[in-house]
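Please decode residue identities from the backbone states below.
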């Protein structure tokens, strides 16, 4: 992650992000861009679980709350692989 940007304005992959209200809703494309994953990955996470919480807006439309995305990414933050492994060994799931 880029360190020259304030934490609140950087996406997980380091690109500048617009300031969002915590309840702002992002569509699938914007969410994929924010998380630096493909839309297909988001679709797989919705099917199999393990991804951020989503909101079903209609039969073929989903949205993601900005606050849920930042909480999901923050739950997966570690200072070392040892910390990650210790958390996994305790059975603590992000």
């Amino acid at each position: 992650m880029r360190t020259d940007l304030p934490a609140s304005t950087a996406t997980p992959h380091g690109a500048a992000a617009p300031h969002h209200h915590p309840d702002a809703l992002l569509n699938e494309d914007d969410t994929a861009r924010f998380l630096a994953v493909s839309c297909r990955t988001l679709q797989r996470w919705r099917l199999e679980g393990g991804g951020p919480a989503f909101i079903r807006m209609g039969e073929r439309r989903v949205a993601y709350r900005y606050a849920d995305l930042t909480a999901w990414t923050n739950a997966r933050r570690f200072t070392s692989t040892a910390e990650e492994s210790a958390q996994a060994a305790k059975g603590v799931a992000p």
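Observation: The chain is about 40% helix and 10% strand.
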